[in-house]
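Could you show me some protein's one-letter sequence and the numbers that encode its backbone in two labelled lines?

___
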Amino acid sequence: MFFFLLVGTRPQVRLDEGAGSVQRYCPNCGRAHAFTPAERRTMLTIFFIPIFPLSRGVPCLACRRCHWCLPGEPGPLSDPARAPAGGARYCPHCGQALPEAYVTGDGTICCPHCGGRFRLV
């Protein structure tokens, strides 16, 4: 007798529906959307059905459209709306707008808001 069992893991994002939201640029969607405080955890799945959590919930700020999470503890939700302007660049770590002056000599960008470093694609 042969029994086929599909076991795996997947991330799960639980949005805090009672909390407020803030407009931010989402690098995953490519547009400005509402972000709300959320909790991200890794779930054990059997046949693609989440069974139980493998990790504690990690607080984040999640896009309400695609559930992409900005890492770290969400701060106060008082930031103004951020929509992409012509040629504007945004930090993939914190979602803040970046001025041109923060491009380093090796082609990486250092975010003045969170200190994250990344390369432009």
